[in-house]
Amino acid sequence: MLSVYETTDRPKEYNSSKLESLLPIGKDESKLICYLQSSLNNEIEAGNTYAPKFPFNLSEFKNYFLVGDVFIIINSRKNLSIDFSNNLENAILGTFYIKPNFPGRYSHICNGGFITSNIYRNQGIGRIMALAFIKITPLLCYKASMFNLVFSNNTFSIRLWRSLGFQEIGRILNAGYLIKKKKKRQNK
């Protein structure tokens, strides 16, 4: 039995040639991968959107986030050098992956994971990624999408996907152990 952290088969019709020329990363992607790993680990540590309890080491990150197809939203309004790897925080608006949700006969159903860069939150980047997801998934031969865990406190995500026609297929009460934000104490 495969876990969600391992490779599953892509849809049998999958052909990556349709996407290869869109966003080639380049020869040295180590800074980019470390930046993406840090972004995901920050979300994990916040404890409100991703299921893992602990941050991923590099190998775990690659097996979780980089197993499928990964897309990066680049800030085209900034004057970025051709080698944007020295300015990743300003260059990357967000990132998302698309990968099979299930193995075998169900590999035509995909899952996606999304991270909006902290400095670009509340600026419509999530919607840009969601619309890109909707356009890209058929190109990758997926027939359906299913997001396994969208916690009820993630109101931005819920509102976004509902506005794009997605439906909830169920709710599981107390499904996750979310980290509650501590209230600041006032000195008296």
From TrEMBL:
Residues 48-185 form the N-acetyltransferase domain. It comes from the Eukaryota. GO terms for molecular function: acyltransferase activity, transferring groups other than amino-acyl groups. GO terms for cellular component: nucleus. PANTHER family: ACETYLTRANSFERASE, GNAT FAMILY, N-ACETYLTRANSFERASE ACA1. This is N-acetyltransferase domain-containing protein. It comes from Rotaria sordida. The lineage of its organism: Eukaryota, Metazoa, Spiralia, Gnathifera, Rotifera.
